[in-house]
Amino acid sequence: MSFDARAYRQALGSFPTGVAVVTATTPEGRAVGITVNSFTSVSLDPPLVLWCLDNKSDRHAIFTAAPSFTISILATSHEQVSSRLARRGEHSLEGVGLIDTEVGPPALADALAWFECTRESVTEGGDHAILLGRVLRFSGADAGAPLVFFRGRYRLVAEH
């Protein structure tokens, strides 16, 4: 039996996901970001979350070595930032509205929620690294529409 990787990827795209930006600080002290749609809650006690990072990412070494990271859940107003930080080589946060955090890496301003995390572990999972973070602090907005990715495009959530 042959495995059609393209068809597999298309099938996975049938699952709508929220979009987040993860930020970390380089050893030189510069904040960088990357767009992810692999964010999920793992545990309430202790508070753990995870996200995945392609092993071929040009930011792999920065994020897997960072002792802390901040995850910002994006609103529809962040589509341009999300697209920019999803591209190879576009990891600068210059021109992005940011909020200082206690853990170090900034959160995105006007995010629906953000989670300040210390790195709990990094595990290899096929062609990705699985980063587990312990949530130290978090905050959330009272309103806003989520940025959603479905079948290769950003989408709007319809409310009934």
Summarize the structure.
Helix content is 14%, strand content 42%.
Could you walk me through the main structural features you see in this protein, from its secondary elements to its overall organization?
By secondary structure, the chain is mainly β. It has a single domain, classed as Pnp Oxidase, Chain A (Roll). Helices cover 14% and strands 42% of the residues. It contains three helices and twelve strands. The chain has helices at 5-12, 60-65, 79-86, and strands spanning 17-18, 20-25, 31-36, 40-43, 48-54, 68-73, 98-99, 107-108, 113-125, 128-140, 148-150, 153-155. A seven-stranded antiparallel β-sheet has the order 3-2-6-9-10-5-4. A three-stranded antiparallel β-sheet has the order 1-11-12, with no helix packed on it. A hairpin with a 5-residue loop joins strand 2 (20-25) and strand 3. The N and C termini lie far apart (43 Å). The model has no long low-confidence stretch (mean pLDDT 93).
Q: If helices are DSSP runs of H or I spanning 4 or more residues, what is the number of helices?
A: 3
Q: Could you name the CATH homologous superfamily?
A: Electron Transport, Fmn-binding Protein, Chain A
Number of domains: 1
Distance between the termini: 43 Å
Q: What is the CATH topology?
A: Pnp Oxidase, Chain A
Summary tags:
160 residues, mainly beta, Pnp Oxidase, Chain A, 7-stranded antiparallel β-sheet, 3-stranded antiparallel β-sheet, 3 helices, globular
How are the secondary structure elements laid out?
Layout: H1 5-12, E1 17-18, E2 20-25, E3 31-36, E4 40-43, E5 48-54, H2 60-65, E6 68-73, H3 79-86, E7 98-99, E8 107-108, E9 113-125, E10 128-140, E11 148-150, E12 153-155
Antiparallel strand pairs: 1-11, 2-3, 2-6, 4-5, 5-10, 6-9, 7-8, 9-10, 11-12
